[in-house]
Amino acid sequence: MKWLVLLDVEKSDFDKLSNLLRSSDEFSLITENSEYYLTSSHWESLTNTSDVHGEATKLLEDISAVAMIHFTGFPLLKPDIICQVDEEGKRQRWRAGSATLTRRPASFSIKLEGGQDIIPILEFESWRKLAEEDEIVKNVFRQFRDFEHNWINLYKVYEIVQEDAGKNKIEQWTKNKIRQFKHTANSQSAIGDDARHGVDHNDPPKELMSLSEAQALIRNLVKQWLQWKCEQQK
């Protein structure tokens, strides 16, 4: 039995997912009639939708977190609609929060999406494994996935990573740009109510960092930190 989770994404985001998951033996991405689905070989032994929903929720949380680290503005993925596909290709569709299945008589033809021509290969499995074993990584995933990427929340991510890796590593990975980030994030005069502080204790930065630059900086910082943590395990 095959289980599919409908992904509420635009084609551009689906293409990004295809790149992210293309080296995985466990997951497949599927498109049919302009709808996008995710399936996992681990779900084939499951027999009811509630079990699939639980497994898919955890998986999509991890995928969302990693994708948000790799890609700007990637959406949070949720398993709101689950499809069950029988051996003849016919399917039933189940919506989260509903006690009934809606039968759709049409056969279900699928096409696997590759992304074979997209480079480079992006990290996924190694980071996902880290999050399963390391509470600090799990916390960073949660911060990226569940909270807006504003100055205050980006600063929280920076603080978590610095506590784990140390100040010298942070400055090395960011080429000292982290100082400009901190100065801007803390300056009420520079960014107003978006700042971490309500009162300035220092002059505003001479060179202001934009929020988009800050987001890119912290994403890159987290990528390098995760790679460093993977290397520490070797």
Percent in helix:
40-55%
Chain-averaged pLDDT: 88
Q: What is the N-to-C succession of helices and strands?
A: EHEEHEEEEHHHHHHH
As an assembly, this protein is single chain
**Euclidean distance between termini CA atoms:** 38 Å
Q: How would you describe the shape?
A: elongated
Task: Give a short account of the largest sheet.
Answer: 7 strands, antiparallel
**Classification by helices and strands:** alpha+beta
* Strand order in the sheet with the most strands: 6-5-4-1-3-2-7
The poorly predicted ranges are 99-119
- Compute the CA-based radius of gyration: 21 Å
List keywords for this structure.
elongated, 234 residues, 9 helices, seven-stranded antiparallel β-sheet, alpha+beta
Write the layout of secondary structure elements.
Elements: E1 2-7, H1 11-21, E2 27-32, E3 35-40, H2 49-70, E4 81-85, E5 90-95, E6 101-107, E7 111-112, H3 125-133, H4 135-146, H5 151-165, H6 167-174, H7 177-186, H8 188-191, H9 211-232
Antiparallel strand pairs: 1-3, 1-4, 2-3, 2-7, 4-5, 5-6
Helix pairs in contact: 2-4, 3-4, 4-5, 5-6, 5-9
Write structural notes for this entry.
The protein has 234 residues and is α+β, with helices and mostly antiparallel strands. The protein is built from 9 helices and 7 strands. The protein has a 7-stranded antiparallel beta sheet, with helices on one face. A hairpin with a 2-residue loop joins strand 2 (27-32) and strand 3.
